[in-house]
Input
Amino acid sequence: MKTSPSIAKNAVKRCLWDIACPGSSKRMTDEIWEYFNSRCAYCDQVLHRGYGQIDHLVPVAILRQALRGYFVLACPPCNGNEKREMDWESFLREKCGCDEVAFASRRAKIAGWIKAVRGADAEVAPELAQAIDDALREITLTIDHHISLLLALKKRV
Ligand SMILES: [Zn+2]
Output
């Protein structure tokens, strides 16, 4: 299995959410696939499980809360190199080019998801969401610290 610091952090995040709300990460993934009809939210390509990815709508760097509204279904090229830290509306605009109809309908689809999920996420007690957020921040700092120690040690041996 391919692994990286961000995969480790995402795994920790999933675990924390599953401890706080059992089944939430699997449910979230299933709901995202269903809502987006197994299509990339940006380029509309049909995806299959194992190829499609869950994309952070907002760059992780400015993401405070680990809530579902911040994730959409995306193909690996859209999720990976193409979007990077670009905001999702600008990226979608670029993806759709001059096709205003595609832009409007995909934009409405994503906006509808954010709205639908905000209501569902409101069911998670704010203190719980905040506690997960705090834990993630601390754990991320610890992971980053130990990874830099490991890398420094690796250079020396
Ligand atoms: Zn795509």
Observations:
- The mean pLDDT is 82.
- The longest strand covers residues 53-56.
